[in-house]
Structure prediction request, 68 residues.
Amino acid sequence: MEQALIGIAGMTCQGCVRSVTSALNATAGVEAVEVSLERAQAKVSFDPAVTNPAALRAVVEEAGFDAS
Ligand code: 9UX
Prediction:
């Protein structure tokens, strides 16, 4: 298992946090997700054989936020 820290711009309420959390949780290879509104970031544990940080950032972008 590997961990990625993804910066997320554009989250303004806990609803946004829930959207990002469920989008990441629905992604194959994702083991655990912790999204912080205050820190504007997501901490994601994932299986590197299945997914990668670039793909995880793409999921966040598709959910409507800016990932870095
Ligand atoms: Mo809150 Mo976010 O009303 O996409 S859910 S701003």
Summary: The first helix runs from residue 14 to 25. The chain has one domain: 2-67. The helical segments are 14-25, 53-62.
